## 1
Amino acid sequence: MTTNTYIGVGFSSHADPLEAAKIASSQAKKQIHQKKPNLIIVFSSVHFQGRKLLEGICYIFGENTNILGCTGSGVITEAGVLKYGVAIMAITSTKIKFGIGAVPQINKDHPRESGEQFARSALKNLGAHTKGIGLIFSDGLIEKGSELLDGVKEILGRSFPIIGGSAADNLHFSKTYQYYNKDTLNNALIGTILSGEGIFGYGLKHGWRPLGRPHIVTQSSGNIIQKIEDGPAIEIYKDYFKKTLEEIKSLLIQISVLYPLGIYLSEEEEYLLRNVMHINPDGGIVCQGDVHEGSQVRIMLGTKETALEAAQQAALEAKNPFKHTPALGAIVFESVSRINLLGHRANEEINIVKNTLGENIPFIGVCTFGEQAPLKSLEYRGESHFHNEAIAILTIGERHALAE
Amino acid sequence: MPWLNDLLQQNARLAEDIFYVMEPFLFLVVIALAVFVLLKNKQIKKLQNSLRDLQRTYQDLDNQAKLIIKTDLELHKTQSELDKKMSGLYTLQKISRILSTTLDENEIFTKITAEHISELGFDKAMAFITSPRQSSSPNIIPNIKSKIGYNDKDIEEIFNNKLTKEIFDPVINHSHVISSLDAKIHPKELSSIVKILKIHSFVCAPISTKEGIIGALFVGSESMFSPITLGDKEIISILATQIGQSIENAKLFEETWRSHQELEIKVKERTKELSRALEEINIVTKRKSDFVSAVSHELRTPLTSIKGYASLLSAGKLGEISAPVKERLEKINKHSDNLSNLITNLLDISRIEAGRIEMKIEDVNLREILDTLADLFAPQFKEKQIEFRRDLPDGLNTIPADRGQLQRVFINLVSNAFKFTPEKGKITVRAKRIDNSVQIDVEDTGAGIKKENLNKIFEEFYREDNEINQNVKGTGLGLSLVKYIIEAHKGKIWANSELNRGSTFSFILPLTRSQ
């Protein structure tokens, strides 16, 4: 079988963003046999964001290179999770076509519209090619992440697989960056639709387990839960953590990423997780994704062991479609909550992913504030959702078992 | 309507009849129903109790969940701190490894990069060198050695603001490690300070060397979500100490390096001087050898004529000569012989020195040489009643040497011994094997040599100032010639002596032939 697609990766932690980009790009270029890439994926820690980083990439790959990517609280390479550095993936393919789209400013009041706008522009750029999978990168600080994704799904189809990550910073929760060709953007949604059938795999899992009794959401609108069991929504956290409102407020980020709310979905294997971003004056809680009225929610608890198991399952799901020919490369979206939970065992998780996917498969990844992926494996054609605390893996290959 | 009344009456009677017939059955049904209701009630009560139990268990489980979450939160907090400490220690070890190989004071600071600071969990850092006098004076910006996350304008603002002295002064003047966790500063002031420093939390630790505190290391975190811990304070304090030690090492290295360089320069200069001196000596030696050789040749020809004519005259071939003339002629002959010996020795020395005489190494029978020597000196030994002993070990028969030159060595050493040994004395030639060499000692029971002169006796023309030398003529070249011959054999010669007890001249010759 002739190879149509080449994927190469590179990494650098050189203090100068221009040099770091050049070093990482050169490594990736060597692996794609010095070919012209169709797409460059770039992930970096916030230290490297800016014009110089993208100039460095263009210096190696040429002026009109398609660049997509974002910042994260860390970047992932086969060496593990690194808080400081630049990771680059170069993809060149005669088979896969890329329909790139970008919305430089997300409409924060109506993010659905921005999602739709992105999907339309990406579809237009893809042309008549069969759409295979959507890959998106968005600002990780927008509160209505689900609505944004809903907009994309509205245009591309509810069962169309979309995978991606919400950009992060170094846990300051102040500003995240998205890379789009030569521009470094904030508050943007960028991405691409990749064409082709039977050449993509994906897996997503989180490993958090429900604890305590289920609670019914009695009043909610979009991503805001006003009432749980007719009381202010924040009471659930006050009750479980035996802390005052002020204490909860000061510990909100730490508590929320470790003990998110889990929404029970009858047709899905895992609970859908929601981080709490703010507490409204009326005691309502603002989540990163939607929570429907009448949903059953529970406090979720993650352990290192279940998280590591989940990573292996996600990698297996992403790998399984390529039973006969291994995948050519993979992109990992890893929630910052997992890094927080796993602590010094975070690299163990990356090792599990590496060993499960296969030793020689090039991959890069980013630590995100939110992840987008279908809940179930390819066989189920599950709907894409906005997630927290998850690890989402996209694999790209030549042709997998289902398509043979 | 009469027919309707009849019908109603008939029905009433029929109903009455049925009731009378069914009465016992109805009674039984009512009883059965009552029993059923009673049983059901009991079952409901039982179910209600079970439900209450279940609700209580459910609530207990929920309460347990709350307990688990609370414990888990505490556990996670501890584990996070531990993780942060571990990662900090790992980074610290990495930095230490780099610093320990850095021996340039300025380079030490550049080796701590933004990556390291980020790995330690901080966003900004600066290191500066100052003196206590400087730090207490306002508006003086110290010598900033490294800044990460700050520009020159930030630095100017930080050090121009009196408030920041609340942090830096205790560090520089009292060697305190100050952090936002425990700074003894009013919360209002602290919040202004962190604003000036553009951070949320910080640690500042002194950098000290043997001379005392020379500066400070400051690190800060911008994020309110990653506050510093006590572990951070310890790690930054260790890092600052490590920087101080590295500076100390760099200084020591520089001093050592400088003195090493100076020493090297001196050694080079001396070596040059010595080389020059050696060159000059070689030139002078060559000139001397050439001169001696030329003069000796020039002297030998007329000397041969003098000796020839003296012999002719003495033999009376040119006519009879009187006894006094004959006596004078014999003196001329004798002195000519002495002069001839001197010239021969001088020529040999200059030839050996110039490498013009090649040692013809062959297997020489030592015993034979010593026997010949005994025969040669037998009349003299007899005259002075000197005992001549030869002590050779079994198995040492031959040694590799130039036969003629070795004979000269023995003749010189034995005649020397003879000269200084009084009557009835003893001269012993002893040989012994040492590894791959042979050591030969020529021992006498003579007058001995003063210790301070032992090193000089092998010098050319040196004659010790003693009674015997004053009476017995000599050239002062015999031992020099011996030394040259031994060294030409790749051997070594030396002497031991005790005044009035005797001397031992020892030499070593290799038993293996050199290539």
## 2
Amino acid sequence: MAHAHESNVKKIWMVFGLLSVVTIVEVALGIIKPDILHKSSFLGTSPLNWIFIILTLFKAYYIAWSFMHLEGEKKWFRRSVVWTGIFLICYLVTLLLVEGGYLFDTLSPLVRW
Amino acid sequence: MEANIAIPSDGKNTWSGGGVRPFSASYGKMMMWFFILSDALTFSGFLAAYGLTRFKFIDSWPIADEVFTHIPFIHGEYPMYYVAFMTFILIFSSVTMVLAVDAGHQMKKAKVTWYMFATIIGGLIFVGSQAWEWNTFINGSYGAVKTTDGKLLQFVKDGHQIALSDFVVGDRGDNRVTHTKKNGLWFESGEEVSKYSIAQIKASYEANPSILMRSEQINLNEKQKIIFSREKGLSELAKAELVVEGANLEVNEYGNTIFANFFFFITGFHGFHVFSGIVLNIIIFFNVILGTYEKRGHYEMVEKVGLYWHFVDLVWVFVFTFFYLV
């Protein structure tokens, strides 16, 4: 309600265009899967996966900042939501993925293909 | 020390927290944000659990491109296109939602009405698409064989997976049919009998040297499933105990059981959010038409429900990445 009367229509369509382009890039990469990105490894997974994750976070940023209008909220209100969420999610994901890798190292030698 | 002071409220304002606006945000909007935060943590719990399980089975997880390959009314393999379409629908309905909020700020009732309507339609298309996706997933398209030591055997020809119906010939051999309530005691029905019997599949495999087999195991360098030699295939097939068609919570034709379980659970939970979002949108839509917010003097309810709707879109962006792309 901060900007009671000004219209953001133009900006909204721009963000839509941006999100669409990013999605198209993701889908194109997902279908083509260039070998150089897909079959190599970088920091634990393929560079292609890192591109997907970064593009996803990019989209998430625009949805939260523009569509959910976080940019217009008071700074510390915004932080109370964003920092809490990001901290807890990073914590959870780190622990669970480390554990998943450990389970693989421990259990996969016991599987006979 | 405002916290200790009772603020007079005549009941009309209780929805807005009695007029207190910490951080210049109304009570309702702030609580919607904190609800979204907690819901986001729930979803990250699911997705992180999916990540753990996937890391645990990193050498045998189903490859999404080979599982989600269908488009309605069109035959053939088109990985990704359909989910990409679903993603667009959801992003677009997010846009119409934010346009409704924008029109609400300018008190343009007619515009809010139409944008809300478009948002609801978008949501319905998305839920419908998801129902179709589930239906395709549950019915399956290839079929596979499960062995006594828990491996799932899929059939391959010229490097591509083929369906049981593509190569299995002849007769079941045991004359079994599914026992339904129609053809036995009216109160009894049995387990579904698969279309092909194990003996029939074995015979067809032996008769056709161009058919190969693979299990769930992935060659981590090639990122493809390892294909067995004919002899190895035969010895694996000797251990067959179950013909699998489609997916349920116990067994599925795509690979690890827990893969299908996560699919049902995560997309189902998200679909349920979309469904409840549509219900909220419809309620708000009628309130807009009735002029409730015109009388109230502001369209903040549209904004609050809009937050929820955008959140559903936000979650889908992550589900899309981690289920279909990565």
## 3
Amino acid sequence: MLDALRFEWMRLTTLRSTYWLVGIGLLAAAAIPVIFGLTATDEDLIPEFVALAVNGGASFGIPFLAVFMAVIGIFATGHEYRHGTIQPTLTALPQRSRLILAKILVVSAATIAVTAVSMAINAGVVLVFFGEVPGLFDDPVRSALLGYMIYTLIYTLVGLGLGLLFRGVPSALVVIFLMPLIIENVIVGLSSIPTLDWLVPLVKFLPFTAGTLLMSVGPADMGMGTDFDFFDRWGSGAVFAGFAAVIIAAAWTLFKKRDA
Amino acid sequence: MITAKGLYKRYRKTVAVNHLSFDVRPGVVTGFLGPNGSGKSTTMRLMLGLDHGEGQTLFDGEAFTDIRRPMNKVGTLLEAKPFHPTRSARNHLRMLASANGVGDKRVDEVMELVGLGSVKRKKPKGYSLGMAQRLGLAQALLGDPRILLLDEPTNGLDPHGIHWMRDMLKHLASEGRTIFVSSHLLSEMQLMADELVVIGRGHMIFNGDVDQFVRDFTQSTVIVRSPSAEGFTAALEGAGAEVAKGKDGELIVSGMEIGAVGHLAFTENVELSELSTRSASLEEAFMSATGSSEEFIAAEPIAPATKTGGSANA
């Protein structure tokens, strides 16, 4: 297993795109507290504001870092097919399950580390502009930020699973952007139409929508006055994690069965 | 030593590899021949567990997928450009080496060996096909393996490169390694291979040494030139030989050994100006062996229109 981990680490760190994506993700996430610092210095540092600044706007619906890390997840598997490297990879490391496990572990570790760095940078920005970061290590901000880290991790793993499932990059990119930004938003929107109110009980099972509740500071409200009866933070997280697990399990099973 | 038994692969209605069994011995270069679409690449992928099918291939007694750090035992080159375009060639090899406990020193060594030392830090997207093949061979040699499996390694190489590859493979075989190499360049196989595995439409056509293949799949003929060719033709046919007339007036005799032809000329008191045998090339043997098993057959070229009188002025 150590050989597989070494391989995957080398694969990840010898790609220039990894550094670009991490760099852009960190900058985009840091831009949110910078904008707050420049425009909202009179705001009270309430928990919602602190969490939003430190997670780089992710809980407001713009999970910059998660999206860029998800692209790294897609590349972890999709690139192997796009550039035909799956053949040398499997002749260097023919134990397929070991390879996938190594990819999941290395990409997960990188995501957790990058998210932690991003939160540290963002907290530093808040400190510079506002002179303090109140309640950073206390609930509800602490749980919301832990939820943000898990959200980013699950988002990345969904990307990794989609890249492996579709055996390429473009389809996985389309799904990972289309599903949270369009499909789920459309379903949530449609559920407010009286004749489609049967959609309401389904909303809490929409994976990316449920996933955002991992980052919530207060009670969930989708802004339309509808009570979607969401699960709590960790229950919603389990919905998102379950979705990632299904994608990865399907991709893993097919990877073992399919020709390379 | 490679031992392949009962290799079988089906894609829906098409049987790509049909119960192939063969051995590849160490110390010699074994060529893997077959027309386009005959199943050569699929067979190699089956052998390495890249494709799923039936049968078993053992590399010195072990299945490929059971080998820990396989590059140290089996080196492979399957596709011409299987690398990320922006990862440097050296990093590509370092990545594969890291999964097999091979150090950076060996990476630099193989890059020098294949002649890519000066461009090892460049991105392979700028590599020509020939350079890519050299990088592929460097990849195969990374773990200094005893067995090499190479799919069309001379594709894209210039004549100098082909010569280099041929010498390299023969040298590696002379060190006692097992070399299994596919190619559609029959002339190359004639110069490079000691043994052959020939397939057509997934079926085994021949497995043995190159000379045996030529003997089995070509009819050896005797060439006779004589001032009394017409009279001698009747004598030859009377003795049971088949005689055809060549374009230069020579007699092409089949079904009779050269010694018997000479003896007949002596007893018939016929003067001969040439008495020789003509051996078929590997290419002729290959065409004869696989002629009926080509997967993709092109139409015959259209004959140029006969020029009629007059001139066509623009």
